[in-house]
Design a protein that fits this description.
By secondary structure, the protein is an alpha/beta fold. The chain has 13 helices and 16 strands. The strands form four sheets. The chain has a seven-stranded mixed β-sheet, sandwiched between helices. The radius of gyration is 21 Å and the shape is globular. The chain starts with 17 loop residues before the first strand and ends in a 6-residue tail after the last helix.
Length: 391
């Protein structure tokens, strides 16, 4: 491989690994969804050039920025965007909040498909709306959509939006074309707008293929809003940049107004340069990253099969977040996560932060050098088997 993903990088200025003077890992976080890899060299080079410029005032968003987004989605996802459909903001969570503010009134209802990304809940409630759960069905070791329940929930005239997580965090599904069409048809019939969070769209594996919801038909395009960003793909969440795709002009104007009300309608000159470099020059790095992440997943699944066979690792079609069924341990996921942190200095996400449907599951982030992954799994095994020490 041209790029070196095994490099160990102390992260003294972030939430992540804490190091003592001997560079021994004290606390190992395999929780929050960012990566322990340097971003693509092209992004680093672009940011270094921007720093050398020395003037960090307001910046004009050039056509080069929008064209980079358009070209990326044409190449990677065969989705021909119009740059006029795009609005920029500081992140997908601020984007979701602005979209909900723009398209609902306090008291309206918003469907989510649980277990699902925890910020969906806060974004809905912070805008005075009510969460309606269309719980995913877990059967034969995989998740599928409960379409009968979705249709029943969508019939409620108080429901205005469906927040679609595609690829799905935390269960790792990449919804296929047929599933997305069924979602879209139900929402069209009952006048429910689809708001698609597609931030993990570039991180898919094997035979899975991300299908942008808005690409499926003209009706879906005009009856949806999509939130996208290079931040998960290129590990640059701290740069703070995202885009909102809204093809309907009236919807786009409402969202633009909400972005201004929420005061998240400006991005930094660093965000502009990082996005352009990532989308224009980062493709080779991403292709190698995906190979490395797939290998990490294969290692993790093999480790569980060998040492922890009582726990079930779900298939990973997309994201770098592995969903693990720990119900055999007969303890709450919150209790398990807390014990792993306090006794083993290992941080994972308890399933219940993604809704009640996440009870009995944990989420493990595998976007890290293999050494971190091996250490984390060793600690998990030591805890569950009663071995002494941290592995």
């Amino acid at each position: 491989m041209k790029y070196y993903f095994d490099e160990i990088i102390p992260r003294r200025h972030t939430h992540s690994v804490k190091w003592d003077q001997a560079s021994h890992v004290e606390m190992l976080p395999m929780s929050i969804a960012d990566m322990d890899f340097r971003t693509a060299p092209a992004v680093i080079d672009a940011l270094q050039r921007r720093v050398a410029h020395g003037i960090f005032g307001y910046t004009r968003i050039s056509d080069t920025y929008f064209q980079a987004v358009v070209n990326w989605f044409t190449r990677r996802h065969q989705f021909a965007l119009n740059k006029d459909w795009l609005l920029y903001t500081t992140g997908v969570v601020p984007a979701l909040s602005a979209v909900i503010k723009a398209l609902t009134q306090p008291g309206d209802k918003v469907i989510v498909q649980t277990p699902v990304y925890n910020c969906f809940f806060s974004s809905i409630r912070n805008n005075g709306c009510e969460v309606v759960c269309n719980e995913l069905i877990f059967n034969n070791g995989e998740y599928r959509i409960d379409f009968a329940d979705l249709e029943e929930k969508a019939k409620d005239s108080g429901v205005k939006l469906l927040l679609l997580c595609s690829p799905h965090n935390p269960v790792g599904r990449v919804w296929n074309r047929e599933e997305l069409i069924r979602i879209g048809n139900i929402c069209l019939e009952h006048e429910v707008m689809v708001v698609a969070d597609e931030i993990h769209c570039d991180l898919v594996y094997g035979g899975s293929k991300h299908v942008p919801f808005a690409s499926l038909s003209e009706a879906f395009l005009l009856h949806s809003v999509t939130c996208i960003a290079p931040t998960k793909t290129f590990n640059m969440a701290g740069v703070q940049v995202a885009n909102i795709l809204a093809a309907d002009k009236n919807v786009r104007l409402l969202i633009d107004r909400a972005l201004n009300i929420n005061e998240v309608s400006e991005i930094s000159p660093f965000a502009v340069e990082a996005l352009i470099a990532a989308y224009n020059e980062g493709e080779e790095w991403l292709d190698e990253l995906i190979v490395y992440l797939q290998q990490n997943y294969n290692y993790l699944r093999g480790y569980f099969n060998r040492f922890l066979p009582q726990l079930y690792v779900l298939p990973l079609e997309g994201t770098y977040l592995v969903w693990v069924d720990v119900r055999a341990l007969q303890q709450s996921s919150r209790e398990l996560a807390q014990k792993l942190l306090t006794e083993m200095n290992l941080r994972v996400n308890e399933g219940t932060i993604y809704g009640d449907a996440g009870e009995g599951f944990i989420r493990i982030n595998i976007a890290c050098p293999r050494q971190y992954l091996e250490e984390g799994l060793s600690r998990l095994k030591a805890f569950l088997t009663g071995e002494v020490g941290t592995g």
